[in-house]
Amino acid sequence: MLTHSVIADSEKEAKEIVASEISQARNDAAKLIQQTNKELEAQKSLALEKLETQVDELSQLIKEKLLGKQAAL
Amino acid sequence: MDLLNQTLNSFSGQISDLAIGLNPDIFETNVINITILLGGIIYLGSNALSAALSERQQKIVGAIQEAEERLQQAVDRLAESEKQLAQAQIVIDSIKTDAEKTAQQVKNAILNDGKEEIERLTTAAKSQIVTIEAKVRKQISDYVVTLALKRVTVQLEGKLTSSLQQQIIDRNISKLSD
Question: DSSP letters along B116-130, please?
Fold first, then answer.
């Protein structure tokens, strides 16, 4: 009886600690993912704005590849 | 004080009136009979009293011995009980120690499982972040390429004559032969 009680108490205590830590870890992970998503969206918008200027250069390169340098000009 | 003196005088007068004294005649006073009777009573009575006292003494001695035996038995039982109690206490302590040890092992096992679960969660979260980053990079790349191709298409609209088309085909064929 005493033995079972001691083991059960210890098991219960450990399970409570683990449940609490896992819950905390899940919350932290969810927050991290959410934060990362938000930051990536912001970086994506910034990157698209910056790349906008390079699209013309890329278009020119595509034309050159397609038509040849002289014809592209 | 006067009253006391009067009372004493009155008593002394009364005693002198009674004429009390000793009778020296042995036969008249039955002294011999009384002495013989007393001797017989003492002789017979002493034997009976002695026997009764002896019997009583035996009973008391027996009772004391019995009580001493019982006391010894009780002491023995007490010693045996104390010995058993000590052994039981040792067993209880052993069980308690084992229980605490097992409890600690169970606790450690659960905590280790929890730690591993948290590590899995962390790894999964990191992996998810890497996947999201790759997805965003691809989105950016696709967007830029699509936009560039759209612009090329717009620029070439109306300019892509049949001779130009033939030129493109020839050019690409020549590249294939290279």
Answer: HHHHHHHHHHHHHHH
Residue A20 has pLDDT above 90, yes or no: yes
Size of interface A-B (CB pairs under 8 A): 111
ipTM confidence? 0.80
Query: How far is the C-alpha of A66 from the C-alpha of A73, rounded, in Å?
Result: 12
Given a contact cutoff of 8 angstroms between Cβ atoms, the answer to whether B96 and A1 are in contact is: no
Write the residue in A32, A44, A66 that is nearest to B136 by C-beta.
A44
User: Distance between terminal CA atoms of chain A?
Assistant: 93
Q: How many domains does chain B have?
A: 1
- Location of structure tokens 């979260």: B125
Task: Report d(CA B178, CA B165) in Å as an integer.
Answer: 20
Domain with B82, as residue range(s), is 22-121
